[in-house]
Amino acid sequence: MHVLHDAPLAPLTTFRLGGPATRLVTATTDAEVVEAVREADAAGTPLLVIGGGSNLVIGDQGFAGTALRVATRGFELRGTELELAAGEVWTDAVARTVEAGLAGVECLAGIPGSAGATPIQNVGAYGQEVSSTITEVIAYDRTTGETVALDGAECAFSYRHSRFKADPARYVVLRVRFALEDAGGLSGPVKYAEVARALGVEAGDRVALGTVRETVLKLRSGKGMVLDPEDHDTWSAGSFFTNPVLTEAGYADFLTRVHDRLGPDATPPAYPAGDGHIKTSAAWLIDRAGFAKGYGTGPARISTKHTLALTNRGAATTADLLALAREVVEGVRAAFGITLVNEPVTVGVSL
Fold this sequence. Notes:
The chain has helices at 30-43, 90-99, 118-121, 163-166, 193-199, 209-222, 248-262, 282-288, 318-336, and strands at residues 2-8, 20-27, 47-50, 56-58, 63-70, 75-78, 81-85, 124-125, 128-129, 134-141, 146-151, 171-179, 245-247, 271-272, 277-279, 300-302, 310-312, 345-347. With 351 residues, the protein is α+β, with helices and mostly antiparallel strands.
């Protein structure tokens, strides 16, 4: 393990924001991860686990405790079964599955962060979620002091949520196992309309894996969702807010507000979300509430490419970012009666 004291955390996040940690431990094996967690727990020291840092908002005051950077590596294919160490770079792992001719995560290309974070958020994009391919998560259980294996059902996946997110202080993910599909070099059925249009195919069609990956990367790049150190639109956590899921009654109330504000012909996006629920678009809400691409005059602004991304233009503080986030939340609530929920994990701060 590598240990630093009073260590900057901002460089470990895609926002490039946040103060230092009292202590930063970098672990390169599962055993080192477990050792660092046990040591912190035994001493009663607050613990912050960092993977790729793509879903973190750390306060300007930093973190008074041990920050554990999981830098483990491991990519193992056994037929269509894939096992990834938690520290594997996710977008690189997706590229390797595509090269191997295996379908199941190709639409998740370009998503920043580490493999160990994917089950926590139930990472998804363009019609795919990791919950559809994850078979098992190997994690250290801080409550029992044991390493456990949780199957897909035990992970309690839902939209951008899981057992790990519901109880963030209990589990530290070590490895993730996936069941992929050999479809002769073809992708899974294309589910997302935007991807189907870009590919020139119908929803449900299968396309060459490499073509789907390149198309998704191009779509994400156009929205500033592929990391580029020279592009401040990518100094973000990707989508800052989750898409709201409403009851049918709640959606009806929302629709009334939409018509009152925008006219009777306005039609917000609506997607079935199971059990009498309807999902709508956070990006649509933000834009229609008056926050366009590029909104803001300070060092934290909405991306010029995508209204869902809040960005650090190079000199922002976490306080600047949160001020912008609160302005957006309050504006959407006032306009449509919906309270947006942040997707990134906040450390030492909150909306």
